[in-house]
Here is the input.
Amino acid sequence: MQQATEDQFFGQQNEVKLFSVLAQDFQQKTGLLTEKQQNRLGKALEHYMRQVWDTNGPMPLQNLNREVLGVTANDFTGYLRREGKMPVNVQQAEVLVADPRNQPVTEVAASRLAFQQGIQPRPTFDQGLLQDTGSRFETLQQERVAPSDKRPSPPNFQISLTSSADEPSAVSLYENAKKAREAEAARVTATTGGANSDVNPLVRFMSPPSIQNDANNNPTIALPTFQATRGPLQQDYIIKQDDIISYKETEFNLFLYSADRDWLNNTKENRYNFSVNFDPANNQQGFGYNSSVNKKFKNISRIELVKAIIPTEGLDTLVTKTNASTYTSISKLNALSYPYIIARIPELDTNNFGTDNNLDNSFGVLQYDANWYSDTTNLTDGYLAMIPKFMKCQKVYHPTPLATLTKLTVELQQPDGTSLSTVADTLSITGVYIGNKLPSSSPPVSTRYGADVGYLFIQTSSWFSQWTFAAGNRIQIKGLNMTQLNGGATTAGNDLGQYLLSNTLPIISVMSVGNDDAVNAAGYANVIVVRCPYLDPTTGSTTIQYFGGTSSTHNTLGDSLKLTTFTSAKLINLTHQTNIVLRIITREMDPTARVRPDNL
Here is the structure.
């Protein structure tokens, strides 16, 4: 099968047919082909027939002929263009083919030769049908463009230092150039129809200004302006490139303090579970329901957890029995009782993965790093620094940075996923009593402070563990309304309210009602003892500053306080609070990329 196709493809009948098609197509475009051109076409045809067969054979004969016609036509077209014979407008031309002897014959002779060789005459074939739309359009555009006459270069009127007698003088060169310019002006006049032409004046007025310029008719001008017919090219314009935008990273340290939340109204959060809002409109810090940060972070590329600082308070109480009737409460359960604690921030999850859902939802796993105490004898008054040791605890926003932060919710959890402590760090105040004016019903019993006018007893509505509010801790009071004082607000009452609300008070002792300076058997208490202000300790005086100014007003206030129940006041332990330290890295435009190194 392959041999039959090869014999048919390289047969004389097929070759003559291909030559006839090519010759007819080129004669329609360029006119009669010379003997040299016919020989060139025949050699190109034979060459590409062999090339097409070596590359695509065996293929169907029709496909092989199509490939040969395409590549041979392109090659011969390039040959004619190099010879300056393509394109040429031809009105009528005979279609030539080549016989085996490469002799040009007419169409009638070609038909007779084909009949003698048993070849059916082939109708005129348009080679353009084999071209794609783009190639055909380009060919038509090239055919429509008239050949441009090459303009002679302007003469050089410079006096030569090495001129001889045989060379033409500058005057003769000028006269020749003048005659050439006059001939050119006459040709332009003839082309445009002249001044007395029947051309519509409106058309003449709208013609290109280079033709109407009188300077073009001046033979003394070396080059007329209408010869500069080249249009603007792309390289004639300076295209400004886009500016290279460079960025820089800016680091911010963010500190989240759990006591800054609105603990007076928000009773759902504590020191281990709180939230923070960012850029809360025009509100000040502490104005809203949650703590807030006035800074608005933009284009955040990374957020890192640096560390958490937590109190070394007892998270649970162990009640032991020393004898048949004596119980003792101790606290040995704090954050160091666990191998690690989990820092969960729902807005910054997908940072860690583990074998349980608690680790999958965590932002960081914190371990012990350092600790310090204000009093080494009482190890409950200290702090622990917990860090993500040897781990990358960060949230990366790549390739697109985070637009801004609106809220962060922080919860420190035990390894089992429960909160580190659900005990509230705020207490509601029901009564405030002076030491020598304790109420008659369920009074706190204190041998040391009970009869002293210089101490205040603050009774809370709920009982608390002695490890969450311990001696030495500092408390803050809010919401104390002295208009609720029995008999109405007085000068002494206002002095007491101002003292309690404007200061952070250290705890002197904690006790429970009915126990003499002691907590109950489970280690819980409901009374906090604080000190009244001194008059002027800098003078060495130990006299207290009486509320109202005198001891009588002080005692009168104590009588009113015994009959008063406060309903809106609360206190918080500022010592047992949590600090979370984050690092926020934002992306900003680098102005140094646009600033010159010199500033002249």
Observations:
- The two ends are 86 Å apart (CA to CA).
- The chain has a mean pLDDT of 79.
- The first helix runs from residue 2 to 9.
- The longest strand covers residues 298-311.
